[in-house]
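Onboarding guide, step 5: your first structure request.
Type a short instruction followed by the sequence, for example:

Predict the 3D structure of this protein.
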Amino acid sequence: MPPATPSGTPKTARTQTSLFSFFSTPKKPAKKDSQDALLDDTAAMIDDAMLDEVAQAERAQNQTQGVKRKSQPVYRDDSDDEPSADDGPDDDDGDDDYAPDRAQPGRTIADSDDDEVLTDAVPSPPASDAGSEPPSPAPKRHRGSGSSAKRMAASSDGPALISMLSARRSKLPAASSDGSALMNMFSGGSALPTSPSLARTTTAMSSLSVASAKQQRAASFAKKNEQRYAWLEDVRDAQGVRPGEPGYDPRTLLVPRSAWQQFSPFERQYWEIKSTHWDTVVFFKKGQVSELYENDASIGHQEFDLKMTDRVNMRMAGVPEASFDHWVAQFLARGYKVARVDQLESKLAKDMRERAAGARKGDGLVARELTAVLTPATLVDPALLAHDLATYCLALVETTTSDGSASFGVAFVDAATAQFHLTTIEDDDVDRSALETLLVQLSPREVVHVRGPGDVCAADADGMAGLTPATWRVLKSACTATTDFVALAARREFWDAATTRSELEQADYFDGAAWPPALRRAADSPKPLALAAVGGLLSYLRSLRLDRGLASLANFADYAPTQAASSLVLDGPALSSLDVLAVAADRGAAAAATQQQQQAGTLFALVDHTRTAFGRRLLRRWTCYPLRDATAIDARLDVVDYLLAVPDAADALTDALAPLPDIERGLSRIHAGRCRVADFLGVLKGLDACTRMAATLQRTADETPAQPLPARIAALLAAFPAAELGAALADVHAAFDATPAAAEGRLVPHAGGDAPFDEVCAQLSELDAWLDAHLREMRTQLKCSGAVYRHMGKEPYQLEVPAATRVPSSFLRLSATKAVARYWSPALRDTVQRRAEALETRSLVLDGFQTRLYARFDRHYALAMRAVSVVAELDCLLALARASATLGAPSCRPTILRDAGAGYVEFRELRHPCVAPTAAGGFVANDVVLGSRTPDDGAASAILLTGPNMGGKSTLLRQLCCAVVLAQLGCHVPARSAVLRPVDRLFTRIGARDSLVAGRSTFMVEMAETAAILRHATPASLVVLDELGRGTSTHDGEAVAFAVLHALCARLGCLSIFSTHYGLLADAMHAHPRLRPMSMACAVDEARHRVTFLYRLVDGIAHKSHGMNVAAMAGVPLPIVHRAAAVAERFEAEVKGKKLLGQPEKPEQTPDAEPEPPLAALSDFANLLRMASLQSAANSDAAADANDPLAPVAGTQAARRANENQYWRCIVDHLRRSALPPTAANN
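The system replies with structure tokens like these:
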């Protein structure tokens, strides 16, 4: 191929080789008459891409010298009249490129295999002799275009590098006398050498100039922007407050007025958005690239080594649009918020809109809009959600009273399902127990609160004064290390109750319908704290562009952290110490671990055999709230037994559930109109599968009459809306063509189903027919039967003819090779433009059809959710059956007692459900019996547990609690037999731990948890306390332990296991009528200081804890162990002969004097008189509780006001058993 020569066409007659550039006015080059201007021009030419070309071309020349290379055309769409990182052949700025594989049948379309030489779009030269060869135009270059090998025109008499430098040289400005070495290299007066040796010399010179060119470019950029962005050196928020000053708002940025005056149109568009999202990484979509600017570009470069350059007067980095989700996930994982600014139209659509409106051509900017702000707690896109469980964003307001108690308004949302919950916590104690329970249950990812003065709350009736230090301590200790706290300005950003009412009415989230009942109750409450919390949450979601898409579903429900009326209450300490939801770990490890790692070994992981995402979320709620009603528990157990007995039904259910997508989240996305077509089709397919699954389950039951369906499954199948859902799905399926939807990801209506779509399709058919006719006409006119259409990038339908073919002078030549040339005739050019506009119109029509179809399906949201709820419950029941089958032997169905009364549990050969399957050498099972099965059997309700260190006491406590949770969840338990009366609350005080974040010592944590037990326990509760009192001195700890144990046995009567190492406590309480002393057995070798743990629960008291033996086993040096043993013997000798705790010293008495009763008995009688006085003063309050045998003395309300929680039945029974002989007491 001969060397490329410049075209003789004047520069002003040429335009960029882009379809859209043919219909726009070319810009005039700016005048450059200074050295700075020369440097600017050099920077514009010698960019990183060009420098990379030099290095790549040198390597390519050395490897393939003399080999011809293909060169592909390069097109750029300057949608914003600004350079962009996506300038290249794949940049379409959102418009539809022609795809050859979608060509209409019958049209002649060929793909070129010849070597290409890209030319400027110029009118064709005059016709010449057929044998003459038209001149080859010079290749046109663009910044940021594809690889150098594809952009170079091969030269027959010189290396590729020299050809490229020759093409570049004609575009560089002449160097001044003091110009740079790089300019001199390109502007030498003589022709560039072509021999290999001289080429290598020139290449070496260019390599040496690379560093100089980069330095000049960087210096030019720095000089130009030194003053332009000087204001970023002094960052302030919108109110002028600097970082670190009180009241600073990190979300906003103050942009000086002088800066606005200097901005280009695109800079103004950018900073209008960025100035209100300063703490957010903002991605700007430009064509097929999402770009970061200024500080965000620096973050991308520093965190992920994204290549950073300078464009549009700002630092810039970019990522491909196809990998946007990946990069968003990376930024979110590093703790950044991410905003997405979408391009709402293509350049062609913008021109069409302006022409239709009769407006002047604008500033070149296409319309963009902030469409989403992504935070870890508010992700809704399935591609970004890391797991199936709910992730909550929670808003919190607080008011306090003079006694230290607090009331809270709480609202939280799972953004992926658009499910809102709200609650009011009234008169929470000083330890914020109810709030702690809620936080442990939810584990919120973000907490939105009112920004107070230094985050210290003052008395404020509407909760707009921030949070108290006590609440902050609970938030820091109960939330995870990854929880983000978002502070909003009171009333302006975090709406109070009155503002929330006004905003709800003005926004009309519910389209004129009545407010959801839960929201209406919160608004009508005399203390509308929950409504204020909803206001803070909605205000925050509005800033994230999520409020309407989530709130308009009207999924608002009340939330009770304890649900005491219907479920077994598990408070925060119980959930944590029993590893119900997450294994207790240090905060750093918990933050670094994945959710699966945190759940490993938990009770939830044991039962989580669900097959669907929405079933898993429901099962987690079940695990937090085990059942309390015996009938409901037995109903679940019946289903478990049925699925274990009929494996065909279980297998059919498993196979049907496994492929289901997350329909619940998909329905929320469809309502918001942000659902991908593939996800929409998945939801439809999933609902179809649900319908078939219900039919299959019913058919399986009909085929096995010996095993009828359990009542719960029958009720679920009866509630499944099979007919209505089938009709709704048929209606939606009939609206679009499934084939292109699955293949192309576009919802296309059937012919005749959408008038606008039919109209634009008719227009496209007419244009295609014209193109076919025009091709035949050109073949005749040019006498060239081989003329075909070529589709080159964004210039489709180029008429390709042999290079020697004479064409009219009005034809516009677009590109050529040495063999062929390609043209547009004037009529063809106009038709191609009209066809491009028709394709754009078709795309807009299809977008509108998709929106209408989503809205059409969304009318069936409630119907679809009914089906999802049924399937989710079936999934959970199947999971309980699968979990029951994995417990090993022995395991059994627990027997649930339905009679009302005090608590009772009986487990034979009980094992720990989570530890036993992995225990090396097997797990030692034990029998545990607590309480009375009948009111008069006189059995002990408490166990005083002693034994050696590491003897298994804490494990026994945990396995009993876990077995109770499993039984009331509706699952089998790992025991030979199990009988229990449903427990109403489960309390734990296990393990020694402090709370540095909350500012509480180990003993303070113990006492706070013990106080909650004494306030809320009932005779139907189960309480386990492990070594209470260890955090203080021995005498204080022993005294506290004695008083608490006495209260549990003599005044509350709850089921309890009290583990201790206090020997005097065991001696003092072993004869208590409601207490049974037991211990963990062991075998001791005193000579060798060795102890063998038998892990067997036996009757009696262990008089030693064998701490010295455990110390020796742990590796403590034996001399220290021997010395410690000697000191321990001396201590024991000193206390021998002292009176047992609780027994007063006896004064001298005459022979006929009656013995004084024990101190404990005197305390019990005094307490009886005090309770009688309280009962007498609160008769009116007690009336409502007169028929409740579990109601406290004086009634629930009076007992709460008096901070007394005691029960007549327990008090009287304890006194009778203590004062009378055993035989009389039992009668």
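Each response can be followed by summary notes, for example: Residues 341 and 370 are 4 Å apart (CA to CA).
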